[in-house]
Amino acid sequence: MMMNPSHGKSASPSSLIIWSAMISVYIVWGSTYLAIRYAVQTMPPFLMAGVRFLVAGSLLYLIRRICGDPRPSWKEWRSASVIGIFLLVGGNGGVVWAEQWVASGVAALLVGTAPLWMILIDMLHPAGRRPGRWATLGVGMGFIGIVILIDPLQSISPEETIDLTGAGVLVFASLLWSIGSLYSRQAKLPHSPLLGTGMEMLAGGLGLILLGILTGESGRINLISISRSSWLGWLYLVVFGSWIGFTAYTWLLRSAPTPLVSTYAYVNPIVAVLLGYFLAEEILTFRIFIAASMVVGSVALISITQQGFLSSKRRRRKNGE
């Protein structure tokens, strides 16, 4: 799944360790979309995700406190709760709900448009900056790819039709994820990235469980009817998606070059589409291929442009301009 790029980086370990962590993030996060699809087949989506994050967040929080991280302040809990609500309740909650009807590969492509929304939100913010022409081109190309992928006029054959409600929820989930990510840049969080991540999981998990109760999911729980594939999907999300994926990513943010770490944003959708096609027999048509190329290409273009902007800005500061 998508993650929160809000922490800095530090030491420089060996290339082998860095690339091992990168490959883990590429494969693990790209595969979580397929795991979600299996999990929600026989599990209520919001409660499934809520328990997932409560279990993962509780263990992560306890481990970091045992390791000596100080008790978070009220302001840090407030910031973590806001981030957890936007990223996990709004972002991940939208994904798990929509994947009841939308293929995992398509879901990954729509969620992968978060950088497009971040550019637009940053542009509209009073203290934000206007994107350059290449970033603007990337945004435009990305949204054209979304239109091609969703096909709102339903002009294609019924076999290729994508559920419009589910697609709309995914786009909105991507927007909420972007808002939470931008908020996290200036939010007061614990010095330890792993402690902060655990707090965000706890807040998001509680929010998802509350949402599940309010939408009547508690009356749909039947442990006997939950399939083996759903249990395995849920367990995979806890162990690999939450613990291994989160840990590798937060470590990379402190230890690896930012441009390298940011490549996950356009590698994950490719991994998700391929896994959905080969393991779950999801449809991969020429239209989806074209739309995927435009969405992934737009995210890559925006990422490269933004990194170039930040590099030139740092050089100007260094030269005293």
Quickly describe the structure.
The protein has 321 residues and is mostly helical. Helix content is 73%, strand content 0%.
Folded structure, characterized:
With about 325 residues, the protein is mainly alpha-helical. It has one domain. About 75% of the residues lie in helices and about 0% in strands. The chain contains twelve helices and no strands. The protein has helices at about 15-40, 45-65, 75-100, 105-110, 115-125, 135-150, 165-185, 195-215, 230-255, 260, 265-280, 285-320. Helix 3 (about 75-100) packs antiparallel against helix 7 (about 165-185). The chain is globular and about 55 Å long. Residues about 5-10 have low confidence and may be disordered.
Count of structural domains: 1
Tally of separate helices: 12
User: If you average the pLDDT, what whole number results?
Assistant: 86
Summarize the biggest pleated sheet. none
Count of DSSP strands: 0
Report the helical percentage.
over 70%
**How does the helix and strand content classify structurally?**
mainly alpha
Low-confidence stretches: 5-11
N-to-C CA distance: 39 Å
- Report the order of strands and helices: HHHHHHHHHHHH
Overall form: globular
Strand content: under 5%
**How large, in whole angstroms, is the Cα Rg?**
19 Å
Features:
single chain, 321 residues, mainly alpha, 12 helices, 0% strand
